[in-house]
Design brief:
Layout lengths: L11 H16 L6 E3 L12 H7 L4 H20 L4 E5 L2 E3 L1 H8 L2 E5 L3 E3 L13 H9 L1 H10 L2 E3 H6 L5 E3 L4 H13 L3 H14 L4 H16 L2 H11 L10
Parallel strand pairs: 1-2, 2-4, 3-5, 4-7
Antiparallel strand pairs: 5-6
Helix pairs in contact: 1-3, 3-4, 4-5, 5-6, 9-10
């Protein structure tokens, strides 16, 4: 996200660019891990207030159409069979908070903060925040954060399980890219299938989850990476994964 002069607030162009870029990397087999971050000192301030003011005068259909386009960002993140990391370098509020929650892993700098601030505008999270947040921090805490619109700092976010790790601001890029490269050099076909089964399992029972796992395991058995990992084990060397 690259509008640092307005703390990477989302206007229609940014929303379309985000959705298009996520679709592009989702389909690009050469991309094996994805990092989302913001330019400057903010992850993103969420929706641009000037744009929101303009939408007040638009008919309901137009406003709902925009919300649907925004939702595609979360859909692309969760449905792509690749690990997606949010490198949260500063405030992540509103829609940007929802987007960070949709990512598989969140690494935050000490300068980061998080807020589901929709309620302050008489609204509610519409990009998956009400789906992801309860699963990360528990129902009661999620309701508190959504009902109050409170903004929490990085350490509190780590304490309640909203982020995976907090690092010093000047170490965020290093820590994020270290993890991204580790995941990208791994058996990304298996990682992607594991992500798919985990996501499906969030809304199903154990038996169905086990069935999904068997289906995914069947695919894994036929991958080049599984064969390579087996050979490497017996040859006492590190495997060289290709994501195939």
């Amino acid at each position: 996200m690259n509008r640092p002069e307005v703390r990477n607030a989302w206007d229609p162009e940014m929303v379309h660019n985000l959705a298009d870029t996520l679709l592009e990397v989702r389909q690009d087999e050469e991309v094996r891990a994805v990092v989302i971050t913001g330019a400057g000192k903010a992850f993103s301030a969420g929706g641009d207030i000037k744009v929101q003011k303009q939408f007040l005068d638009q008919p309901l259909d137009a406003r709902l159409e925009r919300a649907t386009i925004v939702q595609w960002i979360s859909r692309h993140i969760t449905s792509m069979e690749k690990p997606v990391i949010a490198a949260v370098n500063g405030p992540a509020v509103g829609a940007a908070c929802d987007m960070a929650l949709a990512c598989d892993i969140r690494i935050a700098s000490e300068n980061a903060s998080f807020g589901e601030v929709f309620i302050r505008r008489g609204l509610m999270p519409d990009m998956g925040g009400m789906f992801f947040l309860p699963r990360l921090v528990g129902v009661a805490k999620a309701k508190e954060l959504i009902f109050t619109g409170d903004i929490i700092d990085a350490r509190e976010a780590e304490r309640i399980g909203l982020v995976n790790k907090v690092v010093p601001a000047d170490k965020l890029e290093i820590a994020t890219m270290e993890l991204a490269r580790r995941l990208a050099s791994g058996p990304t076909k298996a990682i992607g299938l594991a992500k798919k089964v985990i996501n499906k399992s969030l809304s199903t029972d154990l038996e169905t989850s086990l069935d999904y796992a068997l289906q995914a395991l069947t695919i894994c058995y036929y991958t080049e990476d599984h064969a390579e990992a087996t050979r490497a084990f017996f040859e006492k060397r590190e495997p060289r994964f290709k994501g195939r």
